[in-house]
Amino acid sequence: MAGQHCILVGAPLDSGKRRQGCLMGPDAFRTAGLSEALRDLGHSVTDRGNVAPAPFTPKDHPKLVRLEENIGWTESLADASEAAMAEGLPIFLGGDHALSLGTVLGAMRHADKVDRPLFVLWLDAHTDFHTPDTTDSGNLHGTPLGYVTGRPGFDGFPAIAKPLPHDNLAIIGLRSVDPDERATLQDTSVTYVDMREIDETGIARPLAAFLEKVRAANGLLHVSLDVDFLDPSVAPAVGTTVPGGATVREGHLVMEMLHDSGLMTSLDLVELNPFLDERGRTATLMVDLVASAMGRRIFDRPTRAY
Q1: Catalytic annotation on 259?
Q2: What predicted TM-score, i.e. pTM, was given to this entire model?
Q3: Is 128 known to be catalytic?
Q4: What is the separation of C-alpha 97 from the centre of its chain, rounded to a whole number of angstroms?
Q5: Options 124, 231, 256, 268, the catalytic residue
Q6: pLDDT tens digits, one per residue of 3-57
Q7: 56-63: long-range contacts (C-beta < 8 A, 24 or more apart)?
Q8: Catalytic residue at 124?
Q9: Is 43 a catalytic residue?
């Protein structure tokens, strides 16, 4: 992946849930040195600044949080994603996970244009497979995968012409899944890997199998990295902490494998809430993980045998 053109797109979206703070995420990633880390690895970097939502009129809703604002963000981010993918490797600086309603949609549109299948790797403690009808909390950051796979109930959102096939989706790092989502997912061909499976067999095996599927199909790969994929002891700056998450080394291994595969074509960095961070440690770790995905390594492999 050396020498790629990385396009940074800020998405200060803070409407996917009630707890505020993710709107500060894009600036925290910039302050933590993301551009510099990418340039040090030999990549060119263009920072497009921050996207704004398409115009919207807020309305009161009995359950859903800031529905119209989320629709506006989905429209603008889908356009930004589709445009950036035609020019390089976009990295979306979130913002809460509702931003992926738009970024994945844009990636799907681009994949359709170039006649290649899109695959999505979702690194998250949660499945985010709800719909506006099934969510109990009303927080739409829990709905992106329900939306892009064509589940019903997304009235007012941009129409999904060709839903993401379940075979093209892997969710890794699960440890907090609502009963509705569990029942729905178990009837699909989605690859889902919870922390028990990772404890028993490691994170490399299921990831390698999914990456091989992407490679065999000549697919594009959108990666969505949620801060809560990581254990809160190492990444505290998130409002949806769930103990027992991925370690720093497991996170780096995933990113190193992504780099080795050469398959990643777009990346979300989501749910960073700097208000909850400790002296920037979570933002710094996320930047380090991106660097691993873009080629930073300890040694060139294979190492010499002595």
Answers
A1: no
A2: 0.97
A3: yes
A4: 7
A5: 124
A6: 999 999 999 999 999 999 999 999 999 999 999 999 999 999 999 999 999 999 9
A7: 61/138, 63/135, 63/138
A8: yes
A9: no
